[in-house]
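User: Can you recover a sequence for this backbone? Please restate the input before giving your answer.

Assistant: Of course. Working from this structure:
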């Protein structure tokens, strides 16, 4: 970090740092290597807090930002710029670090060097979603690392202390960082299934999010968990993370297998962490009456629906996107007590962010990759 402005009031170091440069890994052009740039950052005012980033998780949605969009129906490409993303952008929404400097309103609430986890799903504050605490579903989102600069940087300015959760010295920043998106998305999805202890839930995709959803479903719902994936090594991990039964949909007929596992009744809920045409077509054949289908993954595609079965079998089709600040606070509590165990498998420097994104895109990161700027 380099101070731009000469210090006018020598007695106060903090006052001098009104504007300074922060090193950040930024997407300047989609699909091109990220550039390390010096980005001007302001000293925090009012309720703002400046965080020294210790850990910034690498998420699948960062790949979509890097590639510039998502797969839509009929091979259509849905551009990130059409939904308000502006480049150059510093990605990174799974941020944990220490408090470096605070605005006057944050005084007494946070102190320097305190370890915190950042809630990145920030809204504009006034829409109906924000009013009920669902800022993650705001009409005009200002999410860190998506619509505003995020945590692939040495420092990040947080608009208000209310988006910070203290994690204490007993938790490390690497695993904590994953709670704000990876685990939060899994938690939001599990909550959306409204599972009861006698329910069977099929969890499609035993990657990082799927495995966390299995831990969470085990911890909070009491339901029977059936993991589905194409890869035996991932299904082995599923078993270790709480799955009661495993189905390899490449080796066996998934519909037949689920019917056998559920006494021909079908699943009470499906959580799909892939959410591609192929997986959701299967999901819709696994369902018991009143089943909830929760779609989470961002693979994309389209689905042909048998419309009459929707009312007659009373299915619920639910989209689930991240989670709320209060859910993140709950997750911190679960992680602190060791009830859930996020897995960080790869660590990178700020200069290696392109490599980190490439490895994630190519399926070479099992667990979670974290950047330590
Ligand atoms: Zn809002
Ligand atoms: Zn994410």
């Amino acid at each position: 970090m380099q101070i731009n402005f000469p210090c006018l009031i020598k007695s106060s170091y903090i006052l001098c740092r009104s504007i300074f440069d922060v090193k950040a890994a930024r997407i300047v052009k989609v699909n091109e290597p990220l550039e390390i740039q010096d980005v001007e950052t302001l000293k925090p005012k009012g309720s703002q807090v400046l965080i020294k980033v210790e850990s910034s998780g690498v998420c699948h949605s960062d790949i979509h930002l890097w590639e510039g969009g998502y797969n839509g129906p009929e091979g259509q490409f849905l551009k990130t710029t059409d939904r308000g993303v502006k480049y150059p952008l510093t990605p990174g929404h799974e941020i944990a670090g220490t408090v470096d400097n605070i605005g006057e309103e944050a005084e007494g609430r946070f102190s320097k060097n305190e370890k915190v986890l950042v809630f990145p799903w920030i809204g504009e504050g006034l829409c109906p979603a924000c009013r009920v605490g669902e800022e993650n579903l705001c009409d005009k989102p200002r999410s860190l690392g998506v619509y505003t600069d995020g945590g692939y940087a040495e420092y990040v300015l947080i608009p208000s202390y209310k988006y910070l959760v203290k994690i204490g010295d007993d938790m490390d920043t690497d695993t904590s960082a994953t709670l704000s998106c990876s685990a939060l998305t899994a938690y939001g999805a599990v909550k959306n299934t409204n599972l009861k202890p006698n329910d069977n839930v099929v969890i499609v995709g035993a990657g990082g999010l799927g495995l966390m959803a299995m831990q969470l479903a085990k911890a909070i719902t009491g339901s029977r968990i059936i993991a589905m994936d194409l890869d035996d090594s991932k299904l082995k991990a599923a078993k270790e993370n709480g799955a009661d039964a495993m189905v390899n949909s490449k080796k066996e007929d998934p519909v037949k297998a689920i019917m056998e596992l559920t006494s021909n009744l079908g699943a009470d809920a499906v959580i799909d962490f892939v959410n591609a045409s192929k997986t959701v077509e299967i999901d819709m054949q696994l369902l018991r009456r009143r089943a909830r289908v929760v779609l989470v993954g961002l693979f994309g595609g389209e689905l042909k629906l048998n419309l009459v079965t929707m009312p007659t079998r009373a299915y619920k089709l639910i989209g689930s996107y991240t989670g709320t600040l209060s859910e993140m606070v709950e997750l911190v509590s679960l992680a602190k007590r060791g009830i859930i165990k996020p897995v960080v498998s790869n660590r990178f420097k700020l200069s290696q962010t392109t490599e980190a994104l490439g490895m994630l895109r190519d399926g070479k990161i099992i667990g979670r990759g974290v950047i330590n700027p």
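That completes the design. The chain is about 25% helix and 25% strand.
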